[in-house]
Amino acid sequence: MAKVGARGVGRPGSPMGLTRPVVMAAALALVDREGLEALSLRRLGAELGVEAMTVHYHAGGKEGLLDGVVEAVLAEVVVPPLVAGELWTDRLHAFACACRTALLGHPHALSLVAVRPWQERGPRLSEASVGNAAPWRPWSCYCLAHRAGPERL
User: Which of 41, 42, 46, 118 yields a CA-CA distance of 20 to 30 A from 34?
Assistant: First the structure.
């Protein structure tokens, strides 16, 4: 991963352009490349060319970093807009397929998505698209874990 730009104006010692979304994207890329075991504040800081405390500031610690990886994966869940008269089962099917598609791109993150709470901050699933997603998580993760593709849902 490319290093973040030169130090700039703003928070002293903070590289220009380093934001929470940039940190989370780098964290997800690291997890994709080397697995969840490789993810740490220190390692991610080295990837970004900053100190571990800078990553801590943007992520809120290791727990926040793990939650951020889940957020980054869920930001990729794209469900088509709600169609008038659509059945709830069709909506659930679309949501499960969208989750599966996103997780197939990040297999090392599946265990995090399955067990960590889905946060409300940052990019989030649109309520207009999927309604309240949290109750669907166990069912979706079960289907994903058992390789239930669109043809088997």
Answer: 118
Q: Scanning the structure block, which residue is given the tokens 């969840």?
A: 36
Whether the CB-CB separation of 122 and 20 falls below 8 Å is answered with yes
Provide the token pair at 12: 């002293």
CA–CA separation, 3 vs 102, rounded Å?
A: 26
Confidence band for 69, pLDDT divided at 50, 70 and 90: very high
Distance CA 138, CA 27 (A): 24
C-alpha span between 101 and 84 (Å, rounded): 24
Residue 26 · residue 44 · CB < 8 Å: yes
Question: Strand pairing partners for 131?
Answer: none
What are the residue ranges of helices labelled H in 49-146?
Answer: 52-59, 62-74, 88-104, 110-115, 127-130, 137-145
* Averaged confidence pLDDT in the chain: 76
Is 51 exposed, middle or buried (CB count within 10 Å of its CB: 0-12, 13-18, 19+)?
Answer: middle
| pLDDT attached to residue 81 | 80
pLDDT tens track for 4-20? 444 433 344 555 679 99
